[in-house]
């Protein structure tokens, strides 16, 4: 399996099999990175500009625009929200490159649930309690002469520990740990308690 810089497992053999679409891909199939940050890679930006900023990975004939939007009217700085049809099209690249070929590919999962056991986040407002979910890197940004990419997903902290400390895999058919369920239910109880009505007379009764 792939390893972290510290040598621990990341829980997958090929991070690109678990990557979502590129963070820089717009809903009309263009590269926002080349449009917004040309100074960071002028040669890359020039080539993309010559191709009207088309993403070299996604099939140029694929429809990756959101329903009701005209792709021709969207610029590289357009909205990045895409429906499931768009995601499916982009996850089956039909362009000249694969995601691994692009020097600026980046994929950070935004789904707030553990991709291994399905536990969803319950964040407590104004609380310093440790989150139930933690960002987990399947692949890391470029280091030295080795080209790699930032590919991240969310794991609950119990699955996160299992993946790094053992041979547990991200793709395991796993259920939430009993401690994870207990922590989630404790937060749910606190939420319900805070939403409950308590009169000032009862609260400050001497």
Kindly describe this structure.
The chain has 206 residues and is α+β, with helices and mostly antiparallel strands. The protein folds into two domains: 121 residues, no CATH class; 81 residues, no CATH class. Helix content is 26%, strand content 8%. The protein contains six helices and three strands, in the order αααβββααα. Strands 1-3-2 form a three-stranded mixed beta sheet. The chain is globular and about 65 Å long. The chain starts with 31 loop residues before the first helix and ends with a helix.
How many distinct helices?
6
Kindly, what is the distance between the CA atoms of the first and last residues, rounded to a whole number of angstroms? 63 Å
Number of strands: 3
Structural class: alpha+beta
In short:
This protein has 206 residues and is of the alpha+beta class.
Helix and strand topology:
Elements: H1 32-36, H2 42-50, H3 84-91, E1 106-108, E2 133-139, E3 150-156, H4 157-165, H5 178-195, H6 200-203
Parallel strand pairs: 1-3
Antiparallel strand pairs: 2-3
């Amino acid at each position: 399996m792939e390893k972290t810089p510290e040598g621990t497992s990341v829980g997958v053999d090929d991070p690109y099999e678990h990557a979502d679409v590129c963070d820089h891909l717009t809903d009309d199939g263009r590269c926002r990175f080349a449009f917004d940050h040309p100074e960071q890679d002028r040669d890359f930006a020039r080539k993309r500009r010559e191709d009207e900023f088309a993403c070299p990975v996604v099939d140029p004939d694929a429809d990756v625009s959101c329903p009701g939007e005209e792709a021709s009217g969207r610029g590289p700085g357009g909205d990045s929200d895409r429906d499931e049809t768009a995601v499916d099209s982009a996850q089956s690249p039909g362009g000249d490159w694969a995601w691994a070929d692009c020097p600026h590919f980046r994929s950070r999962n935004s789904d707030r649930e553990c991709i291994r056991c399905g536990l969803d986040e319950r964040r407590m407002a104004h609380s310093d309690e440790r989150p139930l979910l933690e960002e987990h890197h399947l692949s890391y940004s470029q280091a030295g002469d080795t080209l790699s990419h930032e590919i991240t997903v969310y794991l609950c902290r119990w699955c996160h520990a299992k993946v790094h400390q053992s041979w547990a895999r991200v793709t395991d058919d796993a259920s939430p740990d009993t401690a994870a369920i207990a922590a989630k239910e404790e937060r749910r109880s606190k939420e319900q308690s805070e939403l409950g009505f308590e009169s000032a007379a009862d609260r400050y009764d001497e």
